[in-house]
Design a protein that fits this description.
The structure holds 2 protein chains of 2 kinds. Chain A is an all-beta fold. In chain A, 0% of the residues lie in helices and 54% in strands. In chain A, a hairpin with a 6-residue loop joins β5 and β6 (46-52). Chain B starts with a strand and ends with a strand. Chain B is 0% helix and 49% strand. By secondary structure, chain B is an all-beta fold. Chain B has no helices and 11 strands. Chain A binds chain B through residues 4, 6, 9, 33, 35, 37, 43-47, 50, 52, 91, 93, 95, 98-105, and chain B through 3-4, 31, 33, 35, 40-45, 48, 50, 55-56, 91, 93, 101, 103-109.
Amino acid sequence: AQTVTQSQPEMSVQEAETVTLSCTYDTSESDYYLFWYKQPPSRQMILVIRQEAYKQQNATENRFSVNFQKAAKSFSLKISDSQLGDAAMYFCAYQSGNQFYFGTGTSLTVIP
Amino acid sequence: DTGVSQDPRHKITKRGQNVTFRCDPISEHNRLYWYRQTLGQGPEFLTYFQNEAQLEKSRLLSDRFSAERPKGSFSTLEIQRTEQGDSAMYLCASSILTGAVTEAFFGQGTRLTVV
């Protein structure tokens, strides 16, 4: 069975600093996709960044980048130059076939 | 099209009542998902449609839950004889089946409170 584990329930970062959120997953599949979603308080979930498992190059979207270690089944998210608007729940998600599997989330606080 | 919309945003119901939620996906999306999210947890998969066909259901989806997508467009999720344990955020998401990877787009959810 596919599982996604986020071992950090809460994280905090000073504004303008860098923070890394951890995610590991378990799968026997070779072809899959990984995502980080952001869920601000009382707002809908939006995509932050995606990674195709067959790509070795780590995905980057502006201040957001990932460290994808396929052999270790690790998919961490790095947020650089943190901003107050980055405060939210962050969910790591795995997709294979029809389903998305989500971790339990990391609550990120940005300290002014 | 402004994205996935869900209605209502909030629902308070008495235990034992039936409730129905609606989801309107992004118009060209052929895949539609329902998830349940409780406080402090990530979304848990409930069911999945490709066009009008319900292709997969989670074991979480008891016989009190039923979902439909009659014309392959909007979808409804009905919960019969609600229980307090059904209190949660119900999320709908849609995506499009293509050769390339595509993420799921989420609605704002329907928050159900069973009293």
